[in-house]
Design a protein that fits this description.
With 216 residues, the protein is α+β, with helices and mostly antiparallel strands. It has helices at 11-20, 35-45, 73-81, 84-97, 101-112, 140-156, 171-179, 203-206, and strands at residues 2-5, 51-57, 63-70, 127-133, 161-167, 183-189, 195-202. Helices cover 40% and strands 22% of the residues. The strands form 2 sheets. It has a 4-stranded antiparallel sheet with strand order 1-2-3-4, sandwiched between helices. Strand 2 and strand 3 (63-70) form a beta hairpin.
């Protein structure tokens, strides 16, 4: 397995992987939005200078998993708002199928301006966004290796604290992060009623010279 940075030409494979997650986990806003929106979203973030994608690629050149993060949520959201018209247009097919998504999308847009009380969206600094693995490719060790290499890269890029959030329903992922030395911050209830845990990785401490065990 090869681990590398993602690039704009990976768009189609990343969108396919994102959709395959719905086979095993179908909660959340992005699990409800259609392909037109998802393609446009990833087209934008893959070209954003504040986004980082780390991909796991097999010997055939197929991406089996990826992790993504924002290095600076304020600047990333600012750039996303510049694409608000094309993002809105790409959302129309999703709105037709599920009109309730109109209000959810409006709340998401307000969140990019800091006008939302949802605690899981940091107001500054870096943010862990996605960790996705191909459900048809059974290789848990490589999936874990992907995530930990992603942490190494983010640390090398200057990230000191990496916040992330995990739905309570996603027990395996939560257990992994705890075992992987993420710090639990608090449990919250989202506006849609979902229970979520906020965590963070202290990358400065993790990769300090006195903490060699975590660096391997």
């Amino acid at each position: 397995m090869k681990y590398r940075l993602g690039k704009p030409s990976d768009l189609n494979q990343i969108v396919i992987l994102h959709f395959k997650v719905r086979d095993t986990y179908s909660l959340g806003y992005f699990s409800k939005m259609g392909k037109t929106f998802i393609q446009q979203y990833y087209r934008i973030v893959l070209n954003d200078p504040y986004s980082v994608f780390v991909c796991a690629e097999d010997d055939n050149g197929t991406i089996r998993g990826f992790c993504s993060a924002s290095l600076n949520v304020v600047e990333q959201f600012k750039r996303m708002r510049k694409h608000k018209i094309v993002m809105a247009l790409s959302s129309i097919p999703s709105f037709i199928v599920n009109p309730k998504l109109i209000l959810e999308t409006w709340k998401r847009y307000k969140a990019t301006k800091g006008e939302n009380d949802e605690k899981f969206i940091p107001q500054e600094g870096a943010r862990c966004e996605y960790w996705t693995w191909d459900s048809d490719y059974k290789d848990g060790a490589s999936s874990v290796a992907l995530f930990n290499k992603y942490l190494v890269i983010l640390h090398q890029l200057g990230v000191k604290i990496l916040p992330l959030d995990v739905d309570i329903e996603n027990k395996n992922t939560f257990s992994f992060h705890v075992l992987n030395k993420a710090e639990v911050i608090e449990n919250i209830t989202l506006s849609d009623g979902r229970q979520r845990t906020l965590l963070r990785y202290d990358l400065t401490a993790r990769f300090s010279k006195n903490n060699k065990k975590l660096n391997t």
